[in-house]
Design a protein that fits this description.
254 residues; TPR repeat; repeat; signal; TPR_2; TPR_rpt
Length: 254
Amino acid sequence: MRLCSDIRKLVAASLLWIAFAQGVSATTVEPAKDLRVDPAPCLAAALARDHEKTETACGALIDNAKTEKADRIKALIARGAAYERKGMTDRAIADYDGVLRLDPAQADIHNARGELWRKKGDLPKAVADFAAAIKLNPDHVAARANHRSLAQELERLGALKAIAGKPSFDCATARRKVEKAICANPELADLEREVHVSYVRATREDKTPSQARKLRREQEEFIARRNASFGRPGYDLQKAMKERLQQINGIDGY
């Protein structure tokens, strides 16, 4: 009798468990579908250079939490390149930042980001990126060329900074009023030096003897006229120097 009672209790407990399990099953939310985004549209848009589709398709890939690392890197590179071609420098840099956070060994992206930093005028960051690209890939032709040309530019800027606001002549020995006026005005000093440098450069170019004499005579006449005319009503020293600079370099500046 006790056995039958135990069996009845066991059956009742089993029925309760089954009912509970069915209830849980009925209220449980179905597993979420796989939200991975197909990378093909992003890559196809990038290859077609369709910037708008690239931003949309690659953006969806980048923003999806289930996107694989390799696909996310490709999408960031594609969208960054699209931004770069559209002149959206800051956004392109941000995407390249994202690439390098995921994979710091991307030499091409270091070089690409360096070119953007250079475009923005942040030369120290540009140098650092070019150097990083070369360290990762010593044979990276573009990075080496960029690094070399930027080093030359920095050297030139350093030289220009040293002579900024200084004319071609020594202000300590200046005696004429026009020379003292030039020395007192950094803008005029830079312009005077530019005229002189352009004249010297022009004299070193291949010219016939008659052309060389003509150039020398014109320069002497300009300086004599400048010295004699300065301070007279209507004489504009800055205008006169700009006109002489254009005369030496030509309309296009060469």
